[in-house]
Amino acid sequence: MAQAMLRWALLLVAVTFAGTLAPRFGQASEYRTPNCAQYKLPGCPRDFNPVCGSDMSTYPNECILCMKIREDGHDIKIIRNEPC
């Protein structure tokens, strides 16, 4: 009986611990796809609104990231709306 209780307690701790780590390590699902359809490439606005790409490069704005995607053909997502 005590062994079964210990297993349940360890399972509860493991599930709780995994739940606290999930947002940190599960970021790939939180990446967002840039909305490249809104830009008339190859020209981009010169506004400085940096985004961090999933290639760990900082782009001056989302449009510049879209240009990079079109040029290289890579699927780069936006990790966050700030420099890497």
TrEMBL record:
Its main location: secreted. Residues 1-22 form the signal peptide. It holds the Pfam family Kazal_1. Transmembrane segments: none annotated. It is found in: Secreted. GO terms for molecular function: serine-type endopeptidase inhibitor activity. Keywords: Disulfide bond, Protease inhibitor, Secreted, Serine protease inhibitor, Signal. SUPFAM superfamilies: Kazal-type serine protease inhibitors (SSF100895). SMART domains: KAZAL. It comes from Saimiri boliviensis boliviensis (Bolivian squirrel monkey). This is Kazal-like domain-containing protein. One of its GO terms (biological process) is spermatid development. One of its GO terms (cellular component) is extracellular region. PANTHER family: SERINE PROTEASE INHIBITOR KAZAL-TYPE 2, SERINE PROTEASE INHIBITOR KAZAL-TYPE 2, SPINK2. Residues 30-84 form the Kazal-like domain. The keyword rRNA-binding does not apply.
